[in-house]
Amino acid sequence: MHSNNPLKQSKAFVNGSWTGARSGATFDVQNPANGEVLGAVPDMNREDVQLAIDAAYDAFYQPSWHNSTAKERSAMLKNWHALMEKNRQEIASIMTAESGKPLVESLGEVTYGNSFVEWFAEEARRIYGEIVPSPVANRQIMMTRHPVGVAGLITPWNFPHAMITRKAAAAIAAGCTVVIKPAEDTPLTALALARLAEEAGFPKGVINVITSSRTHAAEIGQLLCGSDKVAAISFTGSTEVGKLLYRQCADGVKRIGLELGGNAPFIVFKSADMEKAITGAMNSKFRNCGQTCISANRFLIQDEVHDEFVEKLIERIRKLAIGDGSREGVQIGPLINQAQLTKVERFVQDAKDKGATVRCGGQTLPKHGALYYEPTVVTDLQDNMLLYNEEVFGPVVSVVRFKTEAEALAIANGTRRGLAGYFFSNDLNQVFRVARQLETGMIGINEGLISATEAAFGGIKESGIGREGSRHGIDEYVYIKYLCYGNLQQ
C-alpha cells in the first residue's frame, strides 16, 4: 500500500470529526505478509466509545435524521456507493496490506461489499408497512416499520469491507445511526470507508468508527451491549465471543444479530461431476487462505470417488501461487496473525498424532514470511481429532471417507454449528433429499461460492441469529408499530 493513499487515515471518526483517543494512546497496524508497520491508529477505551455512542444517539434524535425520508437516505447511500466504486483500487490496496489477502480477492471483496450499499440504497425505499382488514367495522388496523435507534456493529478482520457495508448500509437504510468497531487487525479499511462516508454527506454522528487494540475490546463490547443508548448489536466473529455478547445484551433485552463460526461440511457423492466438485472445493476452501466463516471445513467424500477426488485436488493445490498478496498472480497469502498460525499448526499436529495422514503440505513457509502455511490435505480423519470437530480457519483440507448418504448426513449434522454446507451430486432425488436434511442456514448445491447480496446470509444452531443481506437484512434494524384507529364513523 502506498503511504500516499488518500484514503489511509490515522484517526478514528466520531461525530463527524477525525479524533484520537483521549489518552493519546495508539496501536500499530501490521502487514501480515511481511510484518511491516502500516501506521498507527487510536487505541480507544470505554470513555472514548461512550462519546461515539452519545454522538450516534444525539444524531438519531436530531430532527434532520429522525425525520429523514427513505428517499433522502437512499440518495446518501447512493453517494457513498459511487465514491466506493470510484476508489476501488485504493480500498483494495489498503485491504491487501492489512489483511494479507491477494489483491484480486480484495478487489472482489470491494465489488461484493459495495453491492450491499447499492442494494440497501434501493431497499430503503421499500420498507413497507401493512394495512390489515379489521375484525370490527369501525376500526382501521395499520402496521408501520420504524428504526430501532443506535446500532453497535462489531466486525471481523477476514472481510474488513463487506462485513461493515452489509451491516451499516442496512442500518442506515432503515434510519438507524451506527457505531462501528472494526477488528484490531484491520481498522484501516473501516477508516477508509468512514472517509468516503464523510465525503458522501451523511450528517455528523450518523456513522462513527472507533478503533481499539485487543486490550480494550472486551470493555468496549460490554459497553455497547450494556448501554441504554444502543438499541441493537450486530456481530460477526467467533461463536465464543458471540455467546458472551448475547449474554451481555440480555439485561437490556437488546436486539441482536449474530453471524458466528461455522464447521461447513463439503460432501461429494459418487454421482458428482468431479471437475465441478474440485473447482468448488478450491473456491470454497482457499479463498482468503481458508479464513472465511463459510469455508468448507470437513470434506466428506464417498468411498467410490474418494481416491480420485483426493488425487485431483492435490494436483490443483500444488499449482497455487503463494506469496505477498500485493504481487500479481498470487493466490494464497499469509494467515492474519501468529495466534491463527499457531492454531492451524496445532490442529494439523493433533491429527498426525492421532493417526491421520498428511498427503500434502503441513508445514510453515518461512521463506515467504513468518505467517505463511502450506495448503494442506489431511486424510484418514477420525472423530477424536480437532480437525474433525472444530473450524480450522486456515488452508487445510480435512478428508473423511463415507459409504452411505445417511452416514454423510449424520457426520455433517453432528455438530452444534450450522452456518453453510456444500454438496455435489447429479442425482436429482438425492439433491432434494439432502438439501432438506442438511442442518445449515445456507447450502451450496454443485457450487462452492454462494455469497450474494440478494440472498439471506446467516446460520442456525450455534452459528447465529438473524439474517444479513437480502430484503431480510433490514429486519434486524426495524421494529413493527401497530396502530389501531378506533371509533371511526361509518
Describe the structure.
By secondary structure, this protein is of the alpha/beta class. The model has no long low-confidence stretch (mean pLDDT 97). The longest helix is centred in the first third of the chain and has 21 residues, at 103-123. Strand 12 (264-268), helix 10 and strand 13 form a beta-alpha-beta unit. The protein has a seven-stranded mixed beta sheet, sandwiched between helices. The protein has a six-stranded mixed beta sheet with strand order 9-8-7-10-11-21, sandwiched between helices. The chain is built from 15 helices and 22 strands.
Kindly report the name of the CATH homologous superfamily of the largest domain: Aldehyde Dehydrogenase, Chain A, domain 1
Q: What is the overall pLDDT average?
A: 97
E-strand count: 22
Number of domains: 2
Unreliable parts: none
How much of the sequence is in beta strands? 15-25%
At the first level of CATH, what is the class of the largest domain? Alpha Beta
Counted by DSSP, the helix tally is 15
How would you sum up the global shape?
A: globular
Q: End-to-end span in angstroms?
A: 70 Å
CATH T-level fold name of the largest domain: Aldehyde Dehydrogenase, Chain A, domain 1
Using only CA atoms, what is the Rg? 23 Å
Structural class: alpha/beta
Major sheet, described briefly? 7 strands, mixed
Q: Which CATH architecture of the largest domain? A: 3-Layer(aba) Sandwich
Q: Going across the major beta sheet, what is the strand order?
A: 14-15-16-13-12-18-19
